[in-house]
Amino acid sequence: MDSRPEDLEQMSLFEHLxxxxxxxxxxxxxxxxALEGILDEVLEDIQTLHRGYQKPPPPGGEVVxxxxxxxLDLYAQCVESMKTCLEEPEAxxxxxxxxxxxxxxxxxxxxxxxIQENKEALSGGQVT
Length: 128
Hints:
mainly alpha
């Protein structure tokens, strides 16, 4: 992957995982130790975010919290699938993991849209 560190900061988790998965599919002789380290770091970050959602949400935030937790779980499943492929390379497992990441991204985009719509409604005085 030719990404520079500043490019990685702008990359979404979904894009990052998709790039890793595509690299694993395209290059069967990838550097397993380096990739395992990257996947471990990503999984640790996901778990840290997940722990942040263990507290009860603010009133009315239950649905958003549930969707975010579900998305984080899907991302974790993707990373676990990729880690399994380090030992036993299997293209379908990587593809299934990437499908989980895509589901997670869709959930987060939907949550973001709902939040934005509510912000706009609140700022426009449309909610009474």
